[in-house]
Amino acid sequence: MKVVKFGGSSLASGNNVDKALNIIKSDPDRKIIVVSAPGKRNAADIKVTDLLITYAYTSLRSNNYDNIANKIFKRYELIAQYFDLPEKELAEIKRLLFALPKLDYPNADYRMATFKAHGERLNAMLTAKILQHQGIKARFLEPKDVGLIVTGTPNNAEVNPETYINLKRIQLQTDERIIFPGFYGITPSGHIATFSRGGSDITGAILARGFNVDLYENFTDVDAIFSANPSIIDHPKPIKKMTYQEMRELSYAGFSVFHDEALIPAIQGEIPVNVKNTNAPEKPGTLIVPEDNFVPQRTITGIAGGKNFAALYLRKYMLNKGSGFTLKLMEIFNKHHVSYEHMPSGIDDLTIIFKKDALSDQLIDVICNEIQTSLNPDQMQWIDDYAITMVVGEGMKDKLTLCASILYPLGKKNISIQMINQGASQISIMIGTRRQDEEAVIKTIYDNFNA
Amino acid sequence: MKVVKFGGSSLASGNNVDKALNIIKSDPDRKIIVVSAPGKRNAADIKVTDLLITYAYTSLRSNNYDNIANKIFKRYELIAQYFDLPEKELAEIKRLLFALPKLDYPNADYRMATFKAHGERLNAMLTAKILQHQGIKARFLEPKDVGLIVTGTPNNAEVNPETYINLKRIQLQTDERIIFPGFYGITPSGHIATFSRGGSDITGAILARGFNVDLYENFTDVDAIFSANPSIIDHPKPIKKMTYQEMRELSYAGFSVFHDEALIPAIQGEIPVNVKNTNAPEKPGTLIVPEDNFVPQRTITGIAGGKNFAALYLRKYMLNKGSGFTLKLMEIFNKHHVSYEHMPSGIDDLTIIFKKDALSDQLIDVICNEIQTSLNPDQMQWIDDYAITMVVGEGMKDKLTLCASILYPLGKKNISIQMINQGASQISIMIGTRRQDEEAVIKTIYDNFNA
Questions:
Q1: Which residue among A155, A327, A442, B65 has its CA within the 20 to 30 Å range from the CA of B206?
Q2: Nearest C-alpha neighbor of B424 from the set A3, A418, A170, A240
Q3: Any chain A CB within 8 A of the CB of B424?
Q4: Does A44 touch chain B (CB under 8 A)?
Q5: Domain A2-221: which topology?
C-alpha cells in the first residue's frame, strides 16, 4: 500500500487533475491520496490558499465578500466541468465555502486556519466526487474522521502522537481509494488548525506512518530533487537516492521541494519517500531511504543555500564564565517567541544566527535593546545579510581532507567565510557567508566536486 | 612608572628573591611590586599556598597544627636568613600566621580564602622588610589599605570597579617602592577573598590599570611565551610581540604562562604587558600590546592546546523549532552552577563543550538525568576525551585560504575533526578533536607553518 500526495501545481487545473487521477488509477497500491489546494495555473495566477486568506480578511471587514468567494468557487467549478461533473455535485462545496464567515471561531487565528484549510478540504471532496463519477470507489476522509489530532498554535500546529493510535484503528476496504485533504488537523477540542505553509507534505507523511505503508509517493512538478538549485547551476544532476538525514540537512537551507518537517514521521515510521513528477510519472524521481545499508554513489549528494539568515554578534570579556549570559539571552528570545538557529562562539564573543522570516525590524530593535540593558555587551552588531550553505553527503563521512578541499577554492575566490560548522553527524558542512557571496559558494563547490 | 609582578617560582628561595630584588633596584620606574607566595624550590617541593591549604584543613580538625604552621613559617624564615634579617623582624609574620585558626570567619569558604591569601600577604610583608633592611624605602600596602574591593565567591572573586576609583586617590611618594600581595582583595564587608588560583597576575593587572602605569612587567621562570608548548614542540619560537586578543585566545586553551583573567584590566587600561624571566631579565621576553597599529610578523603567532574538555552530544528532531530547548538546557546548567564553553549545532543536534575541571562525575550524572527527563532527546552521548586546539594570529586575518591549509594536512594524517570554529574575530581557528589526537594536531600545524 502507498500514500500518494499531490502538490498544488499538480492539481491546479482539470488537465493537471486528470494526470494525477491517471497516476492513481495506474497502480492499485495507490490507495491513500493526499491532496493540496489548487495551485497556480500560470506564473500570473493566484493560489487558492492565497485567495482564501484574502477571503478571510475581506469577510472580516464587510459582508460584501461574494466576489472573492465566487472567485474561489470558480476554481473548483472549472475542474469539475473538465470532468463533466454534474453541477449539483458541487452544492455541498459551495455551501461550505460561503458559510465560512458565518461560523463561530475561538479566535482570529483559528478563523484564519479554518479558511486556509478549506483549500485542501474542498479539493479532497471534489477529487473524491470526480473519481466516483468515473466509477471508481473513492471515499473522502478528513482529520476529524480518522483522529488526526494536532496541538500548538492554530497556524503552525504539530501532530499529536495520539494520531498514530487513532490511525491504527481505521479500517480500509480493499477496493476503495481514500481521498484525504492535506495541511490541517483537528485540535483536541475539535477545531481546525493548520501546519505551516506547504504542510500537505506533512499530512502525507503522517498517514504514511500511521497506516504503515510501503512507500510514500510525493508528486510535484519537478523530475527529481536536484543536487543544487537549478536557478544557480545549469542542469544540476538529479539525486536518484539519498538518506533521510541527507534530505533533512538539505531542506534546512532552502531545498524547498519537500517540506522540512514532513520527513520526521517518515523517519519515525521508516517509510521510504519517493519524490516524483506528476507530468512525468514514468521517471524514477528521487528516493529517500533509511540510513541502514545505504551505499553513497558520490562524495557530495547536494549543495543547498539559504539566503534568509541574519546574525547578531555579541562581544563581552569572560562571557562564558558562568552560564548566566546564555541563559539571559535565551530568556529574552523565549519571551519574544524567537527561535535561533545556531550560536557559534569564540573566546569572548558569540554569534547568534536567525532565520530572517522569524524577525521583524521592530522585534530586532526590541531584542537588541533588551540585550543591551540586561547583558551590557562590550560590542553588539546586527548582520542583516547572512547566508548559509549546506554541503551534504553520506559519502563525506571519513573523507578527512574534504573540508579543506571545499574551503580552499572559496578562499582562492576571495570569499570571506563567517562560520564553518562541521556537524557532529559528519555528513554535512555548514558554511556561513555574506549574502552576496552565496551563489559563488554554491557554484565553486559544485564545479570543484561535479556534485 | 611600572608595576612589576613576581611569580611564586621567582620568590621560592632567598637566592631567587635576591634576583627579584636586583631587578627591582636596577630600574627606579619599578615602583609597584606585586608578590606571589613562595613557590617550589625544586620538583619535590610544596608551594606555600598548598601548605596553607593543608594548614586550614588540619586546624579545623584539631588544635594540633603547630607542625604545619612551623613548616610554613620556616619558608619565610629561610628567606629572611638569606638576607641576614634580624629574627625580631619576623615576629609579626609569625604572630599572624599562628593566629589564623583563631580568627572569626563568616563561613568555611572565607576561612579557606584567608588562609590561602596569607601566602602572598606574609611574603609581601617580608619583602618590604628585606628592602628596608637593605636601606631602600619600601612600604607594604595591601588590598584593605588601597581599597582593592572584590565581589563574588570567596575563592573565585572578581574585582569590583569601585577599586579603580579608590586607587586613583592613593598618593605614592616619589622615592618609595610599594610591596603589594597578589591573589586577594577585600569584600565590601572587609573579609579576604581570593581570585582563582594563580590570581597574582590579576592583582598586578588591576594595579597597573588603577595607577595607569606605562608598563606591567610580569616576571616568571621562562624567557618568553613560546609559539607552542615546549613539551610538545622542540624549541618552539619565542613570541616577541603579540596583541591582547592573541594572548586571550592562546590562554584559553592552555597557555598557562599568564592568567586567563589577568589580561582584562590591562586591556581596559591599555597597559602593555611584558612577560619576562627573573633568571634572565636582560632578555626582551614577550610584549603584549593593544591591537592598534600592530603589524603581525608571521601568519600564525601561536598554537595552544587544551586537553581538559568534555562534550555532551544531544540529538532531537526539530530541536531549534522554538527557543525552548536551549533555554531549558541553560536553566539546568545554571541551577547546578555549570558553565559551558561552546555549543556548536547541526540541523537536529547540539554539542555542548565543557571544561572538565568544572564537572565531577556525579554532577555529569545529575545533569544528564535532568536533560533526559525534561528534554527527552532522541540521542544523548557524553564524550569524555575532548581536546581543543587554538591556532591564533593577527596575521591570519584576510588569509582566506588559511583554514583550508591548516585542515588539509590534518586530514592527510587521519585526524578526525569533531569541530571547526572560525571565530568572528578572524584571528583564530578553534579545532575540536579527540584527546589522543591533540599533540599530533599541534605538531602538524607547527611543522606546516613553522609557526
A1: A327
A2: A418
A3: yes
A4: no
A5: Carbamate kinase (3.40.1160)
pLDDT at B344: 86
A357 touching B (Cβ < 8 Å): no
d(CA B344, CA B349): 9
Distance from CA of A220 to the nearest CA of B (A): 24
Tens digits of per-residue pLDDT, A108-167? 999 999 999 999 999 999 999 999 999 999 999 999 999 999 998 999 999 999 999 999
CB atoms B327 and A322 under 8 Å = no
The nearest alpha carbon in chain A to B401 belongs to A411
The ranges assigned to domains in chain B are 2-221, 302-449
Cα of A420 to nearest chain B Cα, Å: 6
Query: Do residue A422 and residue B419 have CB atoms under 8 angstroms apart?
Result: yes
CB proximity B437 to A under 8 Å: no
With beta carbons less than 8 A apart as the criterion, state whether B147 and B163 touch. Answer: yes
Q: Residue written as cell 584571528?
A: B427
Tell me the shortest Cα–Cα distance from B451 to chain A, in angstroms.
19
| Interface size, chain A vs chain B, as Cβ–Cβ contacts under 8 Å | 175
The span from the CA of B36 to the CA of B343, in Å, is 36
- Assigned CATH topology for domain A302-449: VC0802-like (3.30.2130)
User: A314: nearest CA in chain B?
Assistant: B424
Lay out the sheet containing B30-35: strands in order across: B138-140, B177-181, B30-35, B2-6, B215-220, B273-277, B286-289, B241-243
With CB atoms and an 8 Å threshold, state whether B424 touches A349.
Answer: yes
Q: B-chain residues within 8 Å CB-CB of A408?
A: 401, 404-405, 408
pLDDT at B358 over 90: no
B338, B420, B423: residue with CB nearest A422: B420
Q: Does the interface predicted TM-score (ipTM) exceed 0.85?
A: no
Contact B430, B421 (CB under 8 A): yes
Q: How far is the alpha carbon of B364 from chain A, nearest alpha carbon, in Å? A: 15
pLDDT at B426: 81
Distance from CA of A410 to the nearest CA of B (A): 7
Question: Do the domains B2-221 and B302-449 sit in the same CATH topology, yes or no?
Answer: no
Question: Sign of torsion, CA B247 B249 B254 B259?
Answer: positive
pLDDT in tens, B74-121: 999 999 999 999 999 999 999 999 999 999 999 999 999 999 999 999
**Per-window interface: A 370-409 vs B, CB < 8 A:** 399-408
Judged by a CB distance cut-off of 8 A, whether residue A410 touches chain B is: yes
B398, B407, B427: which to substitute to probe chain A, counting the most A Cβ within 10 Å? B407
Neighbours of A109 (CB within 10 A): 15
- Closest chain A C-alpha to B382 CA, distance in angstroms: 13
- B409 — phi, psi (to 5°)? -65, -25
3-state secondary structure chain A: CEEEEECHHHHCCHHHHHHHHHHHHCCCCEEEEEECCCCCCCCCCCCHHHHHHHHHHHHHHCCCCHHHHHHHHHHHHHHHHHCCCCHHHHHHHHHHHHHHHHCCCCCHHHHHHHHHHHHHHHHHHHHHHHHHHCCCCEEECCHHHHCCEEEEECCEEEECCHHHHHHHCCCCCCCCEEEEECCEEECCCCCEEECCCCCHHHHHHHHHHHCCCCEEEEEECCCCCECCCCCCCCCCCECCEEEHHHHHHHHHCCCCCCCHHHHHHHHHHCCCEEEEECCCCCCCCEEEECCCCCCCCCCCCEEEEEEEEEEEEEECCCCCCCCHHHHHHHHHHHHCCCCCCECCECCCEEEEEEEHHHCCHHHHHHHHHHHHHHHCCCEEEEEEEEEEEEEECHHHCCCCCHHHHHHHHHHHCCCCCCEEEECCCCCEEEEEEEHHHHHHHHHHHHHHHCC
